[in-house]
Design goal:
7 helices; about 70% helix; about 120 residues
Length: about 120
């Protein structure tokens, strides 16, 4: 019996590295590969075998963190954008809208209204 523990995937390990690298301000694939002790090509190959890519993982982490910041803080959008390593607020807004279907400010407003119901 394994005690219900799930084996950590390579995607899980890479996601943890992406989160740490966002905190450091560098989410490039080269940094992630270095942190994992493998080449960029090897990283891409291993993620591909698990049905994902570095870009997909990075996008998911950024979106999840953005939702958390928008929901749990009053932090300005420009600060959230910067923390998540976007080059500018417009790039953050476009990426967020692609994932959620609405702009970060509209998403924040709609969640505030739901919280007060």
């Amino acid at each position: 019996m394994t005690g219900g523990r799930t084996k950590e995937t390579f995607s899980d390990r890479t996601t943890a590295v992406v989160i740490k690298n966002i905190e450091k301000g560098d989410i490039g694939i080269e940094q992630a590969a270095k942190a994992l002790g493998i080449s960029r090509t090897h990283l891409q190959r291993k993620l591909s075998k698990e049905g994902t890519s570095y870009q997909e993982l990075t996008d998911r982490v950024r979106y999840d963190l953005a939702c958390r910041y928008l929901n749990d803080t009053e932090m300005p959008l420009t600060s959230i954008s910067s923390i998540l390593c976007y080059s500018e607020l417009a790039a953050f807004s476009r990426a967020f809208k692609r994932k959620s279907g609405m702009s970060p400010s509209v998403w924040r407003s709609s969640n505030e209204k739901q919280a007060h119901l």
